[in-house]
Amino acid sequence: MAASTRVLHRAMAPSLVVILGATGTGKSKLAIEIGKRLHGEIISADSMQVYEGLDIITNKVSAEERAQCRHHMISFVDPLVSSYTVVDFRNKALSLIEDMHSRGKLPIIVGGTNYYIESLLWRVLVDTGVKEDSTDEADETPDRKKKLENLGGAELHKRLAQVDPSMAAMLHPNDKRKIARSLQIHEETGIPHSRWLELQRGQEGGGGLGGPLRYRDPCILWLHADMEALDRRLDDRVDEMLTAGLIEELRDFHTRYNKQRILDDSQDYQHGIFQSIGFKEFHEFLTAPECSAPQEKEALRERGIEALKVATKRYARKQNKWVRNRFLQRPGDNVPAVYGLNVTDLSRWEEAVLTPALQILENLRKGEEPPVAPVRIQKGEQRNKRSFHTCDLCDKVIIGDLEWTAHLKSRKHYYHVRKKRKSEEASSQDCCGAAAPDCSGAAQDSLKDCTLTHTDVTVTL
């Protein structure tokens, strides 16, 4: 049915507003404006902003901005804590949303951590009944998970294949964190992780990507921009961070929290706030010997700046890809509509972003169809993102149809194809002598088979 004639069934305003978008698109700015006008409160869904410190590099809202609209979930976790998880976030955020609803406030979720937002919108985390948090890196179990992660990826994958072959077929052997989590779930409940997910998706309102929506009629706003314009904006933002004291912030944080960890050989850029984009990019600069020449330090500083800009732009693309994959290309009752707002031209912020956003919310509050139609991207060819392939030529495991196709076209794969061809031809000449031409043809047939040698496991949970 066309969007203009679709009947809406809403007895109240949207249960919550979620503002999506890549870093640098102005999500916080829009959230504050909506909050001021519609009696809302903001919940930050950013996995790095929950930690104290690194305010500049994690792009936290300023004290002045926080004074305009009440914010939650910012700077309340000690930076040395590495066991804070999406479950901890979810439980606290859900309590905040319930409290806002009881006080007649509009919850506004804004942030760039995708799995944090998913945990609020959908019932996607495993609730085993043993202890809700115990399956998702809760405070009582991170040591066990870390011990598992310390094992080699091949060993972990082998263990998972023995107790949960379906989940093992979906995970790359190098993805130690997810494999360790699946093993942990099985150890604590006696039930395979894949079975938990199957039960969850089988709930009323559930779907292929998880359980049902948690709240009725959430309003999803997606801020998007032309990537060339956004890239320039992100480069400018890094320059603004430098002017605001980014290097001094990094140096101070390194001295207080990271220097001793490096000396103890316990530094870890895979957990906690140390994962922040920007911190690890300046590792060489921060750890350069005191006796280093000024030119060397300046070169390391410039290298860190360039790495930060590259990582930030890469992250922006990853965020947009998630929005497209999770919302725009997934039909179904458990996927809410997404209203797109173009933020390419910041000089048109009022007319292109703020006014349409407020109009959408007003129409939804009245149960009317918004003048802005939800965004939908034409569905392309369906690809299995979890199919399991092994390339014997390259001795690699590839997860996903798209990745497998790309690998077969890669330079590295062609290198091994040529190497295999030369080996086959040499073997044919050695063993066949005068009959080499016929045997060579057989070798070519063998080569064709070899280039596609793989294990293809399609898993539907």
Q: Keywords, please?
A:
alpha/beta; Rossmann fold; disordered N terminus; disordered C terminus
Overview of the structural elements:
The protein is an alpha/beta fold and 461 residues long. It folds into 3 domains: 3-227 and 313-366, Rossmann fold (3-Layer(aba) Sandwich), CATH 3.40.50; 244-311, no CATH class; 388-451, no CATH class. The chain has helices at 27-37, 63-68, 86-102, 114-121, 142-149, 153-163, 165-168, 176-189, 193-201, 227-244, 246-263, 283-286, 294-328, 349-366, 401-408, 411-432, 436-451, and strands at residues 17-21, 40-44, 71-72, 106-110, 219-224, 338-342, 388-391, 396-399. The strands form 2 sheets. Strands 3-2-4-1-5-6 form a 6-stranded parallel β-sheet, with helices on both faces. It has a two-stranded antiparallel sheet with strand order 7-8. The longest helix is centred in the last third of the chain and has 35 residues, at 294-328.
